[in-house]
Amino acid sequence: PGLLEPMSTLVRVPKSASTLGIAIEGGANTRQPLPRIVTIQRGGSAHNCGQLKVGQVILEVNGISLRGREHREAACLIAEAFKTKEKDYIDFLITEFN
Amino acid sequence: REKRLTLPPSEITLL
Prior knowledge:
Helix content of chain A: 10-25%
Number of strands of chain B: 1
Structural class of chain A: alpha+beta
Shape of chain A: globular
Radius of gyration of chain B: 11 Å
Shape of chain B: rod-shaped
Number of helices of chain B: 1
Helix content of chain B: 25-40%
Order of helices and strands of chain B: HE
Radius of gyration of chain A: 12 Å
Strand content of chain A: 25-35%
Number of helices of chain A: 2
Oligomer: heterodimer
Distance between the termini of chain A: 18 Å
Strand content of chain B: 15-25%
Structural class of chain B: alpha+beta
């Protein structure tokens, strides 16, 4: 379903550093219904990847939709995706549009 | 517009 999102881009972030290094805000039942990237920390995996930018909205994490998920649940999904040893990358489906 | 005003702001989480 994510592939049907207009203007969405799949970004694969290799786990190249010990942290992912993004801050997100938003989630279901807030003013920002899908998580938005508000900070990218220098030296983190996301920064090293070079394709994530502040202001982008995260639609999916490893194919799991974040629609309807509250902030903590979305944050947990991303944290788990970074922690798991099953993959040495995280796939983010992102959009520039809010 | 009205709906936006009534929804709370989100917390921010560093990951």
